[in-house]
Amino acid sequence: MQKIIIIKYGELSTKKDNIGYFLNTLKNNIKEVLIDEEVNISLDIGRMFIEVQEESIPKVVAKLKKIFGIHEIIVGYKDLDFTLDALKENTLKLLEAKDFKTFKINTKRSNKKYPYKSMELNNLIGSYILDNKKVKVDVLNPEVIFNIEIRQKEILYYDMKIKGLGGYPVGTLGKGLLMLSGGIDSPVAGFLAAKRGIMLEAIYFESPPHTSENAKNKVLALATILSEYSAKIKVHIVNFTAIQEAILKNIPNDYLITIMRRMMYRISEQIALKNKCLVLINGESIGQVASQTLTSMNCINAVVNMPVIRPVACYDKLQIIDMAKNIGSYETSILPYEDCCTVFVPQHPVINPSLKKACEYEKLIDYEALIKEAILNEEIIYVPLKEEAKYQDIL
Ligand code: ATP
Ligand code: MG
Hints:
There is one protein chain. The chain is an alpha/beta fold. 38% of the residues lie in helices and 21% in strands. It has two domains: 2-166, 2-Layer Sandwich (VC0802-like), CATH 3.30.2130; 175-394, Rossmann fold (3-Layer(aba) Sandwich), CATH 3.40.50.620. α6 (213-227) links the parallel β11 and β12 (233-239). α8 (256-274) crosses α9. The protein is elongated. It starts with a strand and ends in a 12-residue tail after the last strand. The structure holds adenosine-5'-triphosphate and magnesium ion.
């Protein structure tokens, strides 16, 4: 018997015509994540097999738990001996190492030519275990469900299943540009978008010297956390200082945030188009702040044509926090470094901005030139960084 990792795809198996594309992407994503391991990955109907050195299995499983498109991860055994004696002996051997009182055998026979039916095998192998180990069968609520799969080319044995993340393999649905601030919401939004198969690029607006190097490093640290679930992430860092100062100087105080966000959207759309991203993604949540009322969203969204996906739009803050904790981004998100929005927060931001007024006010600044300049001077950083990451110093 050989100890191996078996992957089940779940929702993916519903993708009839495109299944080959989805599975190959999944396989490539797995290969990329396991680049430092000596692995052999093979695809079969309904299953993927990953062969690695036995001592690497826990490390590999930990990495697989962060890959979208995997429904279940099973650490089991593969054997090529199809005889009934081998089935009995192998099952006994694997169960002998376990401490339990009740069990049941659950056989699946996808190889319909195999001379014994599943029920017969359950009985024959179950009886053999009862003869050799002091345990009982409990079909309703057993401590151990021992699975045996009789497949075309091999027999699989396993009793432990680990839940995968589900979703679609990253990249199968194209690319999106995530507006990534240093807050709690946008990393969660990025995670949820990646879960639906969207490959992420990220954009961060900084306003030095009003925002610090630490704030930028925090965003890069968050992008690095997200990259564990997706792939290498291209982060666009856009200097927003000139635009923000022009807004502060010329725009009535209550419209500062509205106009600022319209500028962010415009820049994001242009960078998305240039980089073949099909959608914008952000962490807006309905009603959370003045700029996230439905009227505000209309007024801000009006400057772009590209679809804007807001994965956390309908979640409560506490739910978003829970997700952030599960993803592993929360601790970084709550580090105290300032965001460019918080630096310029007005006392009374307009809750129901008028589109007409927003357009009028904007005429007071030569924003097209400023936007062009900002895009021209963007800085690009790919995460994860290869060398010792500077931004990790702040963690
Ligand atoms: P978060 O917790 O994600 O920072 P928030 O509750 O602070 O969100 P806002 O500051 O209003 O809410 O921002 C809403 C969304 O706009 C963010 O989730 C993010 O997607 C985007 N955003 C805000 N500030 C920036 C920034 N400096 N760079 C890039 N995107 C930003
Ligand atoms: Mg924010």
